[in-house]
Design goal:
The structure holds two protein chains of two kinds. By secondary structure, chain A is of the alpha/beta class. Chain A contains three helices and seven strands, in the order H-E-E-E-E-E-H-E-H-E. Chain B is of the alpha/beta class. Classes of the chains: A alpha/beta, B alpha/beta. Chains A and B meet through helix 1, strand 1, strand 2, strand 6 and helix 3 of A and helix 1, strand 1, helix 3 and strand 6 of B.
Chain lengths: 163, 163
């Protein structure tokens, strides 16, 4: 019995490998976030056990990132201009002016079906853990004076990564 | 002379070049791997913005029972930390209240004790925070109070002129 070795080509089957690679690509595509977030990465949030998972129920949201000096950083869609200086509110008076402007915009919105008037945006306060509470309180008070009454404080959920 | 055209169908095997496709998939995957950043688990603490008298973390109780109000006064500690804490009943007879030191465990125990004594009566907690305490510790105080069962929590500056 003779075994003839012909000119057989031996090629690895690349299709399962390609299938797996595409699965991985899809995973990372789903996890990637290209949308410009309105959060500032410079803010280090405090930790809280009672912090609940974020519910994205509100359509209109205003993010106020309060840094450790008590200044409010506007980011993403809330940003007013292209320079860094345009997007920093240095004191509660500037916060009040900005929030009054936003409140006026909110009131010009068409109310939802079944509602008498437009709902003001939800204010989300992301305050740095080293920020002085008095300054954070001043920011919240400015928001209240501007006409907002609903807000959320953000914190890292216990067990999450703390920066 | 008519020629008969025989329709001869030859077997044609179409081979897709998988290797370039795999190469592009790896390029895409490398891009998404390098841009992938797992976000810290952020949570929300819902609240109402401070009104003129005091800041409220939760909306006022809808029941007719007048809530029992406890006031926790937090003095300034070193470098923005918690200082001496005291707790008193707003309508109580002891104006000085119970001292809890700067220990958050004693604060937690005091809140649990008072919550237990209330036996289901509505309650409110006002935190009068010193001007140098940082936001991190205020969130800790709110966190502990929420765990103790207080829903209506009002952090305010200790200095009444800044409320």
């Amino acid at each position: 019995m003779s075994h003839e070795s012909g000119g057989d080509k031996c090629e690895p089957n690349l299709i399962p490998l390609l299938d797996l690679v595409l699965q991985l690509v899809m995973f990372f595509m789903v996890c990637a976030n290209f949308a410009m977030e309105q959060v500032s990465e410079a803010i280090r949030l405090p930790t809280a056990v009672v912090a609940k998972p974020i519910e994205k129920a509100d359509e209109y949201i205003i993010f106020l990132n309060v840094d450790q000096d008590g200044k409010v950083i506007l980011a993403g869609l809330d940003a007013r201009g292209t320079t860094k200086a345009d997007n920093i509110l240095d004191n509660p008076q500037q916060v009040l002016t900005y929030m009054k402007g936003r409140h006026s915009e909110d009131m010009r919105r068409k109310p939802k079906e079944g509602q008498a008037g437009p709902t003001p945006s939800l204010v989300i306060v992301r305050a740095d853990k080293e920020a002085n509470f008095e300054k954070v309180y001043a920011v919240m008070k400015s928001c209240r004076s501007a006409g907002y009454d609903r807000a959320q404080l953000r914190a890292i959920r216990f067990g999450g990564k703390v920066e | 002379m008519a020629r008969k055209h025989k329709n001869v169908t030859e077997d044609v095997s179409v081979e897709l070049p998988i290797t370039p496709m795999l190469d592009m998939s790896f390029q895409l995957m490398a891009f998404f791997i390098f841009t992938f950043r797992p976000a810290p688990s952020e949570g929300q603490i819902a609240m109402s913005l401070p009104n003129v008298e005091a800041g409220d973390i939760a909306p006022p109780s809808a029941t007719d029972d007048k809530p029992v109000t406890f006031i926790v006064t937090v003095a300034n500690g070193d470098s923005g930390k918690l200082g001496l804490m005291t707790i008193r009943d707003k309508d109580g007879t002891d104006p000085k209240g119970e001292s809890m030191g700067a220990d958050i465990e004693r604060y937690k125990a005091a809140l649990h004790k008072r919550r237990g004594d209330l036996k289901g009566r509505p309650s409110k907690l006002t935190l009068e925070i010193g001007n140098a305490v940082v936001h991190d510790y205020v969130v800790q105080l709110i966190d502990v109070a929420r765990q103790a069962g207080f829903e209506d929590i009002a952090p305010v500056p200790a200095d009444a002129s800044k409320r």
